[in-house]
């Protein structure tokens, strides 16, 4: 029990000495990465940079204790920060102090939702995010995040907005105010990071440009000609403080907190899964992940942390640098803690444009072109889904994009089950196979007195009318000589009450026309429903068969149903 | 083409003389019913009674020309009227004139939506309303409608509200103001209608109580002691008038118009279907129904009609009275027209309580107790769905009830496909049947080197992880001696791109463990996907089989795959 909720007891008791070098190196690398990234992401969220460091401290320690992934790096991430900014930007707040306390309360709120969902074992919810939706959404969000940094790179004021057309319009309206020094710093920083990454991937390129940027600003004095710098950053660890907001705000924050809780979880679980596939020494538990991430956010919020989750880039670095257990994030947290205690004055001269450059490089890596191209070739429908999610996220909004994407993919699934494949079967000459007559050029023509159909989906309220309509068309086509219908039910995996009702009615109608209905190949759960719903009294035990050819043989008087066939065709749960 | 969009040309050209008596009698009966009903429903909608008569005039004539049902009686109905009242009640309007013009505009708006959906062939949408949801919603709406008439029966003022708890509270707050004469009239009217209906079902009981009510009020003079009467009703046909409202109102009205369009369509199509089952001389086309109902509302709105649709009660009466074609509603419309021209002064003394009594009797007939009881016995899950829809409609709102009901039923369907049935199969001794080892006490134990599983649903983004997880558990259970996995794919009716990706990865992983994956019994559409997605290169042609036992026979070296088996197992659309 203890191990289930605190997996640390699991790996700490079996910790091996040879893990330590990897954990140490990974912890140091991620810790150093976190300092500029944390400040940069806080900027995306519209918060003072120090809050990015606060968010890099407590949550990852809690996750190290409770999480089931041993490489996931928890902390501030770009997507969450953007959601915070777009969510809080829409409210009317009195000033930066209220903004900060709302952001911290959001961490508590989303954490509580995640914990709640985890306890209720709702981790399966994340299954409803299909790959095309995630891909379209991530690419669009990356573009929006990059655009949100344009103002820092160009050194101009661009009014907020998360829609691409508005950002472009506002940018062009102010294009004449560009600060060329700022733009230079930004572009050089981008080129440098890209260059360093090309030479050696695990090198802390961000840290290099941060140091260079600080040195440049310190000596050049450009801050007097409009190049924006960080300015004073408070020293010391975050204080313990219960987040408090007006009670009336809770209903306003609920939709933002829900979106954050789900999207943050999705991001964390998908990267954790990708990494877990390379490691065989542990298994992910998506419900425990919800609990761990939720608790990280709740406890984090008590120490001034804004919403956090497991991020793509740092987790990848953590894994590549050799992290084996939760020791690595604890080391990272120590690095961040030391920085907060002693090093914040060093960042006084850090130009904003450098942080913006770090963000831009990071998120452009998230834009996926290969996968959409692949879909365009083989699955036009799923490509369309990706494109719609992408365009709505870009032009309408972040929340709208993900919600509509999920809704559309669910509707597609439902639509597919509402008009499923239905085939007329015929015997392939000289065999016991009954196959779709439209696919197989069977010489054996369809018999006039028998109609064999296979229905390839569950029978439920969404397709019962479709089933009946299609069946009636076939009956009409066959004309008056039709005596028997064999329904091959191998692919019918469920029958709900609406469909049961329809089937009973159908059997009565067929009986009036003196047509016999045979059900062949019903699987266990379907047999259970046929018996428990009382449908069996309408169908009759003698009309259940295991295989289509056995029904045909009996019809033709060739062979009787054997005892064993009878037993199998009538087996149900209650009968065992 | 003409006949498709104007089915009147279809039946008018083949009109038989023997249809006429039925059509005439039905038209007269429904016309006489319409007069009190129309006025009563207008009252539910919060409109002056005359608008109920206007709505009974043009729409049913248009439907007679364009509809595919030959018995559906179109006009004002209780549910739509309630939706109009609850939708417009939530807006801040300047007075009754604006209220009326908004209601008429709603008819235009919902008609346009229906026409649009019909042209796009979206009639299948109505399939998503499952029986439990419809039943729970209808019963709750009937109760809400009946409660909305309480104020007329009690003769007191009850502030609006569509939630049962608010109506009860407001009623008890004003209970001391009851007008006992009004209450008497109402109760007597209810008993009378019930009594007459018991004796003879098709007798226009409503008309009788209307006449009695008018006579009573004329001679008693009770209108001076607070019994409310209709008062002056304008004479003459509705004028042609294009509905106009402020453009800015459109976005406010959109959700109401959408709900109206869909619920009205649902009501009409379900009653039309029920009636069509008794008649073999025509077929319903749900898309043409959308077009016909939409056009009825659009043209109706140009002649001051508020939202209309095909109603339950009048359609039943129309059919029982012998209506065979659209001649019947044309007769009804003439009756209503004559009333508007000459008879409106007669209704001056009609007490409101009588109309309220007519409504109450009508809607209590819609409350369904039998069906929920039946579900409670055999399908607890669907009963819960019905109950939730019922309670939300009663206590939260009409719109919320239907929307949540539909959403929950879709989620249930998705949930079912996200964790489908998966069985481990074993050979039943001495046969070629492979069945669920947990259902059949096969003596033949599961073999150590072969794992046979059947997965009973489409493989898609929502269940691919579930599939993999379950399969891996079985693989782990089998241990190192496992050499072959046979996936019985008979019930897998689709594989989407996310699942394809998962399968390809899985095959690679299995190959690394030297485990062979065989797919047996894939149906046509699945074979198409296996080939077109390139999955076949990973699987290998030799690993496709038609039946599980054939794969086993080959594994055991008993029998080679025959030419015909090979051909069937590899058949795809492109290959034919």
Automatic annotation (TrEMBL), chains A, B:
Domain STAS as annotated: residue spans: 440-555
Recorded GO CC terms: membrane
Location of the protein in the cell: Membrane
GO molecular function: secondary active sulfate transmembrane transporter activity
Transmembrane segments: 50-66, 73-93, 99-120, 132-154, 174-193, 205-225, 253-272, 327-347, 353-371, 383-415
Highest rank taxon of the organism: Bacteria
UniProt main location, coarse: membrane
Pfam families listed in its UniProt record: STAS, Sulfate_transp
Membrane protein topology class: Multi-pass membrane protein
Keywords, comma-separated and alphabetical: Membrane, Transmembrane, Transmembrane helix
Entry-linked NCBIfam families: sulP
Name of the featured protein: Sulfate transporter
Naturally occurring in which organism (per UniProt): Aquimarina aggregata
Origin organism lineage: Bacteria, Pseudomonadati, Bacteroidota, Flavobacteriia, Flavobacteriales
